[in-house]
Write a structure and sequence with these properties.
13-stranded mixed β-sheet, four-stranded mixed β-sheet, about 35% strand, globular
Amino acid sequence: MQRKFNFLYLIYGFCLLCLIPPIFTLSGFAEEYLRINLSKELKKGNLLIGLKQYLGAKNDSYSGGSKITFTTKDNFLKLHSLNGVKHKSKTINIVFKKITMKTPFTLERLVFGPFASYESAKMQAENLKEKGYKALVAYPKNWEVWLPVGEKLPKKLNYKVFKKSYNSKIIPFLVSENSQQELNGPIYISSSEEIKINGISFGKNFYLAKDAYGTWTLIQKIQFNDYLKGVLPYEIGSNAPLEALKAQALIARTWALYNSERFNIDKYHLCISTQCQVYKPPKIEYRNVNKAIKDTSNLIITYQNKPINSFYHGSNGGISASASESWQIKDNIYLNPMIDGSDSLQKSLKLPIKNGVELNKFLESADKRIYGNKHSLFRWEKILSNEKIQNYLLKNNLIKEKSDLVALNIIDRGFSGRVMKLEIKLTNAKKPVVLVKDDIRRILSFLPSNLFTINKLNDNLWLFNGGGFGHGVGLSQSGAIEMAELGFTYEQILNHYYQGTKIQKIEILSQ
């Protein structure tokens, strides 16, 4: 049953962050970008998407030579900068320059992290806020939680002090044949036709805004349906059955709304990488993708009249996970560990899976009643040497030098059998390296999932047997595809993966 949904719930959980100014940047970076109002844009049915982050930095590969070019074929581009610069042309070149400041300044903050995921960083921030601290989630390179210097934190908390002096800042300039004009952000660029940016068509409305790290972000303002057209083909695939595409459309719409506070500190809603939902400007109109979006227009998934955190992934390997198995967060009642298959299969295969022996037995079974068993990583095997494993630890600064790897011990498994705590012992280390939940895949990035067992082959080689691709929480895309092929509707697919939820209509996106 579909019911109308009050927009007030959309901003539940992120309004507070919208109202808090970026307390670490106002004295140095980006006073001007506060004029972008994320809440108002969302109410209008628009998303602000960070297409390219960290523009103007040394490692900025997108604006080669620190230049971005906007072009149109027939109609004019319009540029409007906060400092009053206005320009109309069919080609606009913006160059980022590092300009020395007369008065250098120093930024200081307390930093928690890095975290393997936004979910874990958000939980840390919420725990700190409950204790009265002014915590913000940021993403300079990895997810972090920032607090202002001066907060009196207990010594037992694991944080570090960031302090850096700046004698220059990155400023964009509008460049033509005969002149250069300094620009202040946000810089608005729009046209009535599709705009090409560095030769690639993206859309019609853009911002350039300074972020919390002294660099700039290229932001696209886009309506929800247009956003979904750039998500579905790259998340579940344009060739997926129609009912699976409809399920993905609801999930992607719901996920975007629930997670729209993710980049508040940088004045946009979502990114375009796997840290959010993968988005690319659609080059081709896919009939079934468009139909799936149209047929589910303005529908979202809710629990107790609030949008759910509609996690999804590529393959759960036959067993879905709870949220707390994958991240440092609280469980959601609508996300339960289960055998991902028919009712008869769920009755014959029982959870929990308590140890490696039980998991190996499950992984070795090839029951066709398991949904999504055709995925390329439904079952996988990885053989790693001591050296390669230690290379991952070195890369993440968890050890200072290589030595003999003594043991890999799985200390804790979740209800679904996923590894929640992994101990790595080395001869010259004072204490073992212990990886927890999402940090396991962040550090040991060769692992497609946390659903695995470990066997020592010899003194140098380790065998990882596993199943699935991704965190395993919520909808399995390969499972949804198979369910659709078997004749399930998108409502049935969503009820299978998000138990006890409802599909409701939200009118605000059509305004």
